[in-house]
């Protein structure tokens, strides 16, 4: 005798929607990292207004988006009126 098994009536997408509804109001920190530089503590203490610190990325390199410190996407930096903005290129 074969037992009839019914599928879960709720599609996986609706479970995700329910989860988002439960936590969607929680604020998180999203940062855009444009590059990094390795330096010494001595050099940091020598810095003064007007000094330039070169980063390891070229001007048109994608920026890394960090969600609470964890890389979650890559994006390109752009201007949105008089503010910075990012266009998402890839989500991790």
Q: From the coordinates shown, what is the CATH architecture?
A: Roll
> How large is the count of helical segments?
2
Q: How large, in whole angstroms, is the Cα Rg?
A: 22 Å
Q: Briefly, what CATH class?
A: Mainly Beta
Give the CA-CA distance, first to last residue. Answer: 46 Å
> CATH superfamily assignment?
SpoA-like
- Provide the succession of SSEs: HEHEEE
Count of individual domains: 1
* Mean pLDDT across residues: 86
How many DSSP-defined strands? 4
Query: Could you give a short account of the major beta sheet?
Result: 4 strands, antiparallel
Taken from the alpha-carbon principal axes, the silhouette is elongated
Write a structural description.
There is one protein chain. With 92 residues, the protein is α+β, with helices and mostly antiparallel strands. The protein has one domain: Roll (Surface presentation of antigens (SPOA)). It has two helices and four strands. The chain has helices at 12-23, 41-46; strands at 30-33, 63-67, 70-80, 83-91. Strands 1-2-3-4 form a four-stranded antiparallel beta sheet, with no helix packed on it. A hairpin with a 2-residue loop joins strand 2 (63-67) and strand 3 (70-80). GO terms for molecular function: cytoskeletal motor activity. One of its GO terms (biological process) is bacterial-type flagellum-dependent cell motility.
């Amino acid at each position: 005798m074969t037992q009839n098994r019914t599928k879960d009536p709720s599609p996986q997408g609706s479970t995700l929607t329910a989860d988002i509804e439960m936590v969607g109001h929680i604020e998180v920190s999203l940062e855009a990292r444009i590059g990094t530089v390795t330096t010494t503590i001595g050099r940091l203490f020598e810095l003064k207004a007007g000094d330039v610190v070169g980063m390891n990325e070229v001007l048109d390199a994608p920026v890394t988006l960090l969600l609470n410190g964890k890389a979650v996407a890559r994006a390109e930096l752009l201007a949105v009126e008089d503010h910075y903005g990012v266009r998402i290129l890839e989500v991790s």
